[in-house]
Amino acid sequence: MSSHHKPTAKRALSSLEKELAAAIELAGTDLEAAGKAYDALIDAPTEASISEVDKKAKETAVYRRGEMYGKAGDGEGLRELLRRIRPFFDRIPKARTAKIVRTLIEIVASIEDSLALQIELCVESIVWARAAKRTFLRQRIEARLADLYLQQKDYQSSLTLLTALLKEVKRLDDKALLVEIHLLESKVQHRLRNLPKARTALTAARTAVNSIYCPPLLQGEIDMQAGVLHAESRDYKTSYSYFFEAFENYDSMENSLALRALKYMFLCKIMMGRPSDVNQLMAGKLALKYAGREVESMAAIADAHKKRSLEAFEAALRTFHVELGEDPVIHSHLKSLYDEMLEQNLCRLIEPFSVVEIEHIAALIKLDVTVVEKKLSQMILDQKFQGVLDQGTGQLIIFDEETEDQTYPAALETIQNMSKVVDSLYQRAQHKIIDCPLNQTANRECPPENAYLTQYIKTTRVSR
């Protein structure tokens, strides 16, 4: 027995779906006309009885119009778009509203030099979300705003916002958002150089993340921050392992932050005094994928460190100023590395001399006299070597290191030990007198040797 199935009738497109299809077709030939078509669809009145397919059509139009504004670099157009679609938010679920708002803010972020506009957009959205009682959305936009303040280097505003948000989110027990807030707090405290609080916040983030599913990108951020904080403690070996984990997470997701993690891995090898390892890492399969100026900049620093050449080091900093100077983590550690190399080279140069002209040292090290003089004075104050700067003659006078005379410390130690012996003898004598069985009788005295010992110790203590 065979059964015959009737073909399913194709659903007729709604008017909004037809308008969307026409706008998409126009986008391939006439962007201006397509933009107007999208605007007409978005601005169409949203009735309470709007169907689900029309909601999806309007939502798609919003995304496509937002992408057009983003490609054109029109941040103001995106801001106006976000204002225009707010009545539409009353007709769709809150989760979809949150997705649209966050997507449009991310599109604004893709526009160059749009940090100030992103902050204004977030502030406006927070005000609207608070008035519309969209708590879930408001909290996430506030977390985004705190991140934007961090990028703007307005650390106090970021910290103030995070502190208030943290109290609120803890009551709601939103673990996912709690992880993001603690991680942001750790980054802000690190920039403020409050390392103990930065570590505490990172520990809180790792504790919270244990009870939820952690996406690879978020795990990569946590590993990156852990690596940064370990590097601040000069534990570069542990730091390298964290950066490697972060690099693998980002690389698996094809995220651009993988390149930054790779640079931090190179930095750790250089700071550990193993610049030759950088060339081995660069020859690896994964590193070849990210070849470019960013990787070349770290290779130049590794080469300069290997040659112990300050001239090559400064040349690398000038050539790759953007790649090395704009990252606060790399900039901080390279500054420390430069100071160490400068001190080592100066100590090596002045070692044969007792008196030497500062200009001669500057000529040997190929640096400005003022820089060398300032560094030498700092090294003298830090007691890296014994000497004085004679500014009248422009000379550095180096003293021989004085060997400490151990006679007086040894004599003092002997006296202290003798004092302990005498105290011990006195205590033992006291116990013998008390425990003496003859001392229990009123008419009899202890043997003369005990009395003699007691008198001797008392005399000694008085003389001391």
DSSP helix fraction: over 70%
| Quaternary structure annotation | single chain
The largest sheet, given as strand count, sense and whether it forms a barrel, is: 3 strands, antiparallel
Indicate the radius of gyration in whole angstroms. Answer: 37 Å
Class derived from helix and strand content: mainly alpha
Number of strands: 3
Mean pLDDT: 84
Please tell me what the overall shape is: elongated
Helical stretch tally = 24
Strand-and-helix sequence, N→C? Answer: HHHHHHHHHHHHHHHHHHHHEHHEEHH
Biggest β-sheet: strands ordered side by side in the sheet = 1-3-2
How does the SSE layout of this entry go?
Layout: H1 15-27, H2 31-43, H3 52-72, H4 75-84, H5 86-89, H6 94-109, H7 115-131, H8 135-151, H9 155-172, H10 175-191, H11 195-209, H12 216-232, H13 236-252, H14 257-271, H15 276-282, H16 285-289, H17 293-307, H18 310-319, H19 321-325, H20 328-350, E1 355-357, H21 358-365, H22 369-381, E2 387-390, E3 395-398, H23 407-435, H24 448-463
Antiparallel strand pairs: 1-3, 2-3
